[in-house]
Amino acid sequence: MELLDINSKVTLLNGVKMPVLGLGVYKAKNGQQVINAIHYALDAGYRHIDTASFYNNEEGVGEAIRKGNVAREEIFVTTKVWNDDHGFDNTLKAFEASRQKLQLDYIDLYLIHWPVPGKYLETWKALEQLYRERKVKAIGVCNCMEHHLQDIMDNSEIKPMLLQNEFHPRLVQQELLDFCKENQIQYEGWSPLMRGQILTNETLKGLAEKYRKSVAQITLRWNLQKGVVAIPKSVHKHRIEENADIFDFSLSEEEMNLIDSLDREERTGAHPDHFMDHFK
User: Fold this and answer.
1) Distances in Å between the alpha carbon of 183 and those of 68, 112, 118, 199, 213?
2) Is there a domain that residue 218 lies in?
3) Counting beta carbons within 10 angstroms of the beta carbon of residue 115, is it exposed (0 to 12), middle (13 to 18) or buried (19 or more)?
4) What would the pLDDT profile of 189-222 be if each residue is shown by its tens digit?
5) N or C: which end of the chain has fewer CB within 10 A?
6) Which residues contact 279 (CB under 8 A, 6 or more apart)?
7) Which residues pair with 230 in a beta bridge?
């Protein structure tokens, strides 16, 4: 992963190029709040927006893109199919509903939000059809472990191009990272700042002082140097701009290993094998 500036991209398995840094809009309110956040991001150089049907703000995301000063084809847009919409026909309907809310001709990346047991393989077949019909440029999954990925690869014609999981210094999952790398599946991290919990860590604070950066900037730089696409969420202009200011320094191998050592397998969200109870 080349990290020259905010325009830096990774190339997915099928050749599609994806910006290494994006804006996550989870919990951003539909309407003016999410519109403002996306405009702050576009003005700061972001060209990657991550939403989902579950976030209930796809209309605002689409409006922000249409009213922004950046051409649609320059913006990489991700959305996701929610748990209640699994199954082949349901997924196709859910995709069209998302596309209509976004008012976009195509989606850059469409993801399965959670691997609903007994249903995600059928849902994946719908994603394959959407991909073949060129309604989406790339397809992938979220919140999966190695066995989910292997199951999809063993029972499908097209393997996931990307895995989006919770990822931060307290949850590294190096074996899963290595598995994805071996199988050319791009890793993308949600909650890269551990919902703010990582910002008081003394090790990261020490590195922040050394580089005259914030703890968030140190953490996001580590994220990218691990080869993981980052999508920090914020609706605040100064934070969105700060999160993008991570391309003028680099962490040493020793410092990367030091941050890796903070791993405690701590999650802020549900475990992919036990998430159904979480959403009841």
Assistant:
1) 36, 18, 24, 32, 34
2) no
3) buried
4) 999 999 999 999 999 999 999 999 999 999 999 9
5) C
6) 83, 114, 270
7) 21, 189
Quote the tokens at residue 31: 């309407």
The CATH number of the domain where 168 resides is what? 3.20.20.100
C-beta of residue 33 within 8 angstroms of C-beta of residue 237: no
Q: pLDDT digits over 233-256, tens only?
A: 999 999 999 999 999 999 999 999
Q: Residue 39 in contact with residue 31, Cβ under 8 Å?
A: no
Known binding-site residues for substrate equal 113
Residue 94 tokens, joined: 């859910």
Residues of the chain with pLDDT under 50: none
Which domain, by its residues, includes 65?
A: 17-194+227-234
Give the total number of structural domains in the chain.
Answer: 1
- To the nearest 10°, report the CA torsion of 177, 183, 184, 185: -60
Confirm whether 255 is domain-assigned.
Answer: no
Task: Report the catalytic residues.
Answer: 55
DSSP string across 140-164: EEES--HHHHHHHHHT-SS--SEEE
